[in-house]
């Protein structure tokens, strides 16, 4: 029919060229998706992330910066300036007028009888105070470590002397060691011994000053030992008890070997404190001032430094004494480190 425009399908035997020229219905292409709108705050977020990374990088340094600033102002600078002043002749009344003398102030100390006397007194008082102090602290810590009724109360009690002002404690001990009306001499009179002049004798004054140091620092070291004891496994004590070890043998063979590093630490720290001893001997005989008694019988290095710098106004000599004390402390610290390394090397 004339009006029928329907195209008849090609037969199977139609040549391939005819089939290839026949138009095929192709699927319509999918419309392209429009580009996503760019977030308005993307640059701001990148800047925020950049600032966050910068803060994470420099934040820790900002937190510790105040310590280094204060240490540099009140620790490092005075140390360096003292070392510089020790090489000069300079008076406290005119600290800017310095005359170079080199190592003369240090050479003077080697022949200065007052410096050598102060050094001997410091060593003696250090031994008299450090040894009993640490032994008593170790025993107290051992007692507090076991199941002691009211142990929390006793821990507070043993720390009370450490929290007491050195001035208040020394003045109380001055009354206790008074020659005429002191409590210690009264006790000696009760047992039939004569009164002792605690302030004017060499050994008696040093024993009295050492007693103040022992009273103030025993509880502090006891708590350090107690903290170390709590890290010792209870199985060691239980095994020792099963083997029939008494409390004393447990203390000698379990407690002391376990606390060797802590004992070494407290020995070094107590020795450093004894080298810097100042407040107790200064206030023990207030009328003597920085001389440490009428015959310098208990004058320590700290007192001699104070006498040279703030009484005699010789800032250069006092600076040399301060650096000599610093070198002594370095030697003590190095000796403690060597002993610790030697013990660790021997430990299997």
Give a written overview of the molecule:
The protein has 348 residues and is mainly alpha-helical. It has helices at residues 16-21, 42-85, 104-111, 113-145, 151-163, 166-176, 183-190, 202-229, 234-242, 247-258, 260-275, 279-284, 301-311, 315-346; strands at residues 88-91, 94-100. Helices cover 68% and strands 3% of the residues. A two-stranded antiparallel ribbon has the order 1-2. Strand 1 (88-91) and strand 2 (94-100) form a beta hairpin.
Write the layout of secondary structure elements.
Blueprint: H1 16-21, H2 42-85, E1 88-91, E2 94-100, H3 104-111, H4 113-145, H5 151-163, H6 166-176, H7 183-190, H8 202-229, H9 234-242, H10 247-258, H11 260-275, H12 279-284, H13 301-311, H14 315-346
Antiparallel strand pairs: 1-2
């Amino acid at each position: 029919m004339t009006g029928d425009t329907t195209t008849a399908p090609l037969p199977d035997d139609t040549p391939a060229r005819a089939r290839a020229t026949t138009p095929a219905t192709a699927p319509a292409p999918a419309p392209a998706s429009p580009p996503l709108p760019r977030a308005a705050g993307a640059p701001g977020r990148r800047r925020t992330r950049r600032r966050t990374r910068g803060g994470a990088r420099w934040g820790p340094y900002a937190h510790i910066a105040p310590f280094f600033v204060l240490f540099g102002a009140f620790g490092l600078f005075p140390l360096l300036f003292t070392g510089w002043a020790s090489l000069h002749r300079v008076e406290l009344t005119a600290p800017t007028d310095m005359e170079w003398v080199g190592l003369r102030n240090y050479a003077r100390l080697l022949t200065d009888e007052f410096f050598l006397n102060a050094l001997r007194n410091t060593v003696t008082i250090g031994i008299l105070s450090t040894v009993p102090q640490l032994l008593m602290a170790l025993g107290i810590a051992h007692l507090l470590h076991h199941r002691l009724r009211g142990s929390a109360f006793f821990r507070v009690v043993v720390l009370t002397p450490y929290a007491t002002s050195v001035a208040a404690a020394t003045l109380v001990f001055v009354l206790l060691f008074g020659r005429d009306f002191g409590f210690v001499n009264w006790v000696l009179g009760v047992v039939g011994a004569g009164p002792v002049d605690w302030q004017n004798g060499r050994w008696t004054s040093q024993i009295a000053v050492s007693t103040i140091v022992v009273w103030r620092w025993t509880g502090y070291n006891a708590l350090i030992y107690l903290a170390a004891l709590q890290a010792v496994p209870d199985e060691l004590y239980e095994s020792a008890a099963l083997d029939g070890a008494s409390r004393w043998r447990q203390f000698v063979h379990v407690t002391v070997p376990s606390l060797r590093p802590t004992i070494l630490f407290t020995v070094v720290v107590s020795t450093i404190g004894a080298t810097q001893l100042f407040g107790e001997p200064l206030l023990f005989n207030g009328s003597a001032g920085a001389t440490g008694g009428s015959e310098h019988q208990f004058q320590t290095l700290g007192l001699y430094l104070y006498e040279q710098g703030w009484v005699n106004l010789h800032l250069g000599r006092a600076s040399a004494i301060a650096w000599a004390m610093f070198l002594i402390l370095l030697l003590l610290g190095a000796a403690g480190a060597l002993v610790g390394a030697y013990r660790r090397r021997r430990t299997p």
